[in-house]
Amino acid sequence: MRQVETIIVGGGPAGSSCARELVRCGRPCLVLEKQPPPRPKLCAGWITPKVLADLEIQPEEYPYGLVRLDRLRLVVGRSRRWRFRISAHQYSIRRAEFDGWLLERSGAEVVQHTVREIRYAGGRYIVDGQFSCTYLVGAGGTSCPVRRNLFPPHPGKLILTREAELPGEPLGNECILWFPFAGQSGYAWYVPKRGGVHIG
């Protein structure tokens, strides 16, 4: 059985950011990720300057290119629609590219493994009888196996999305949001990206 101080389950932005800090502090860690990067990840990919600052990323150093969103257009109302334009300083990225780059940048060792069973015994977490650690970080998103194995079911509401990322040249650097959309609390978006658009 492989033993390490910290195991991080999930190699998305949360898991890779945690791994990067541990590596920088000289603490041994291992990232368990079920899909090797680049992995398909549908997401609007809308990030703020604060995200870049927190992750210590300069826009010019990001190798896949950021699209700066200069304006937000809000469409609000049901029977009557009101339209507003707001100046903005936001960015959009493709999550498949962004996640893979963050994970590689972390410098942590990544093992492709689908986590199924976690138990706590003798002061250590045992993962699938193959890995053992003192500290365990759950960064696997909505259906993270850490939460599923160690915590009671979450009573929250299920949120459904339908989205697509389409290739092509966006019509300007303007993000559009519609409220409400498809029900009482639903909303829709159009986010331009490098070489494509994301709608949902």
Gist?
Helices cover 18% and strands 38% of the residues. It is built from 4 helices and 13 strands. It has a 7-stranded mixed sheet with strand order 3-5-4-11-12-13-10. Strands 6-2-1-9-8-7 form a 6-stranded mixed sheet.
Features:
about 200 residues; 7-stranded mixed beta sheet; 13 strands; globular
Distance between the termini: 44 Å
Proportion in helices: 10-25%
What sort of overall outline do the alpha carbons produce when their principal axes are compared? globular
User: How much β-strand is present in the residues?
Assistant: 35-45%
Low-confidence stretches: none
Q: What is the number of beta strands?
A: 13
What is the H-and-E element order?
EHEEHEEHEEEEHEEEE
Count of alpha and pi helical runs: 4
Query: Describe the biggest sheet?
Result: 7 strands, mixed
- Report strand order across the widest sheet: 3-5-4-11-12-13-10
Task: Indicate the mean pLDDT.
Answer: 92
What structural class do you assign from the helix and strand content? alpha/beta
Overall radius of gyration: 20 Å
Would you give an account of this structure?
With about 200 residues, the chain is of the alpha/beta class. Helices cover about 20% and strands about 40% of the residues. It is built from four helices and 13 strands. It has helices at about 15-25, 50-55, 95-105, 145-150, and strands at about 1-10, 30-35, 45, 65-75, 80-90, 110, 120, 125, 130-140, 165, 175-180, 190-195, 195-200. The strands form two sheets. The protein has a seven-stranded mixed sheet with strand order 3-5-4-11-12-13-10. Strands 6-2-1-9-8-7 form a six-stranded mixed sheet. Strand 11 and strand 12 form a beta hairpin. Helix 1 runs parallel beside helix 3 (about 95-105). The longest helix has 12 residues, at about 15-25. The N and C termini lie far apart (about 45 Å).
